[in-house]
Amino acid sequence: MGGGKKKQSLKQMTKPKKTKEPKRKEPKADASQSSKPLGLTMPDINNKKVMGTLKGMKALTPSTVASRLNIRLSLANAFLKELEKRKMVEYVSGGKNLKIYKLLA
């Protein structure tokens, strides 16, 4: 039922066939720098650089804090809860999955 191999046209017969060479992946310098391991320790609350990064943001969500401070998402959640306990941020809105905070002056 298969029928067999299809007959090639004259143009296809005259073209030289190329052998397939395995593609080689070259390591990129940019890729190694972008995939740094995320921080496993909570950022220092008293650090002016950390608080300066948070002051530039209108709304604080765990995902934005995690990306800006290069920490894990669970650590960013804990960091925002600690800031809320210390009355440095205020819970604005959110539901089960997303919590939005704002920085108090």
Structure commentary:
With 105 residues, the chain is of the alpha+beta class. It has a domain at 40-105: Winged helix-like DNA-binding domain superfamily/Winged helix DNA-binding domain (Arc Repressor Mutant, subunit A, Orthogonal Bundle), CATH 1.10.10. The protein is built from five helices and two strands; from the N terminus they run H-H-H-H-H-E-E. A hairpin with a 4-residue loop joins strand 1 (89-94) and strand 2. Helix 4 packs across helix 5 (73-85). The mean pLDDT is 83.
Outline of the structure:
The radius of gyration is 27 Å and the shape is elongated. It is 38% helix and 10% strand.
**Can you count the beta strands?**
2
Query: CATH topology of the domain at 40-105, what is it called?
Result: Arc Repressor Mutant, subunit A
Q: At CATH's second level, what is the architecture of the domain at 40-105?
A: Orthogonal Bundle
Strand content: 5-15%
- Write the CATH homologous superfamily of the domain at 40-105: Winged helix-like DNA-binding domain superfamily/Winged helix DNA-binding domain
Q: Kindly provide the name of the CATH class of the domain at 40-105.
A: Mainly Alpha
Instruction: Give the H and E element order.
Output: HHHHHEE
Give me the secondary-structure category.
Answer: alpha+beta
Q: Number of helical runs? A: 5
